[in-house]
């Protein structure tokens, strides 16, 4: 059936027992369809005392769904409904209560936040092989192949022997990371059928967003819940997370399995202009049709020819952007690139500030990931203009300071707090941050003063002592002692790129921009080779990265890279979009 309002209503209101897979491209309204399905399932339970789980890829997606549900008239989310990430779901219902079953000594495993694994590196033989730029990210990309052997999705620097040694040390301390969470949960369901039966009985339906980014063992977990109806929605053209173990072929196999799933494809695009959609259709495995308010907006895709450097390209982008009508309800513009270091270069060029080549935060990230996250989140809270986003960043920082966990896995009873006291502490920190003299206070003094603020406020206002939980703020600044006494918060903040309402902060990596949109988008490739790879059919992941970037645009899409000239583009790039008028800005 062709995409239509009637078809979408049919999908949302399919019998509760039906398992469904939906291919939905960018701007297709898949989140609304997911919510409509969730509401229908909630109002038509298949049996009493059974619930629904809605699995999101990120916490931001979870918050978006909860926000939209709050605005639904005459609907109240049933008690027992789960909405959150796959890791939160598995930790709550399998890892926390039952992981002791996998432990040789019967002690449960604890899911810890990103960065903790680095503490074990020095205990692994030939540990120098771990010392490279993205070591923390790579260490926690050590997952499991289909035979259960260790594999690193981020790097080939770490040997199998070193991976095995590292994991042994971590697991021997009864700790696990996010990759372990998936594999351990799979093992629990596989080895203990009563857990599988209990989870199936508890959740009669599971909805999963962004299924193109599912990993092998995530998919195996859902397959084991064979008495639960499934609702999978995703877009194979937007699978760009292979470094997590994601395999788009898994989603494609669900699309081609009519025996287990009813398959649907949404072809309407409510986001972009007809020109932008046609531009992206050249790369996609299925074509979209412009249906939204921007359908008839006349604004062609723009290549910024002959611009010498980033600054000139950005100036040209803003010049073109002035001719595009503003959409008050949407972000006016975003500037996207593949790599974070290119965004830093953009920020330097635009702001005109000469930041040091090896910035303070970057070095702290390599030395101590926990303190890096704490400092970065607190300064992000100070830098953004949105109070809600500031409080979210503060909660992330406090969770790492007091519990050394992400905010989803903290236990407030450890410090005799409830949710209200926890929120009040965040507000107090927010107020304190806003009154700081960032141009004079140093990094070292900042952590010392923060400890005093947290300790005194909790004791004097709540009557609760938490000083013992603040030891991590007594930091010795390994390899940064001198800089910590000299570098001010203002200088560190200049090195932080955040998404805020400030024009100079409209910078994002393409991966971070997934799920976002803006009236105008400037996509910057590092060179012609990268740009050409982004224009190929969405078979390779690099081509899909380009697709994700290009499809964020609502009314204006601009593209630039160093050396971009009409005569240097090969025929495939030019002819591939020969129906598009390419403008000289």
Poorly predicted sequence stretches spanning 5 or more consecutive residues: 353-357, 499-504, 574-585
Shape: globular
C-alpha end-to-end distance: 42 Å
Helix content: 40-55%
Total helices: the number is: 24
Q: Main sheet?
A: 6 strands, parallel
| Strand arrangement, major sheet | 3-2-8-9-1-10
Number of strands: 17
Q: How much of the polypeptide forms β-strand, as a percent range?
A: 5-15%
Radius of gyration: 25 Å
State the secondary-structure class.
alpha/beta
Mean pLDDT value: 89
Notes on the protein architecture:
The protein is an alpha/beta fold. The strands form 5 sheets. The chain has a 6-stranded parallel beta sheet, with helices on both faces. It has a 5-stranded parallel beta sheet with strand order 13-17-16-14-15. β5 and β6 form a beta hairpin.
SSE topology sketch:
Elements: H1 5-12, E1 20-24, H2 30-43, E2 51-56, H3 59-70, E3 82-85, H4 86-98, E4 110-111, H5 135-139, E5 142-144, E6 150-152, H6 160-172, E7 175-176, H7 178-191, H8 193-202, E8 203-208, H9 216-224, E9 229-234, H10 248-255, E10 262-266, E11 268-269, H11 274-281, E12 289-290, E13 302-303, H12 310-321, E14 333-337, H13 340-351, H14 360-367, H15 369-383, H16 387-403, H17 419-434, H18 443-462, H19 481-486, H20 489-493, E15 507-509, H21 510-513, E16 518-524, H22 528-534, H23 541-550, E17 553-560, H24 571-576
Parallel strand pairs: 1-9, 1-10, 2-3, 2-8, 4-7, 8-9, 11-12, 13-17, 14-15, 14-16, 16-17
Antiparallel strand pairs: 5-6
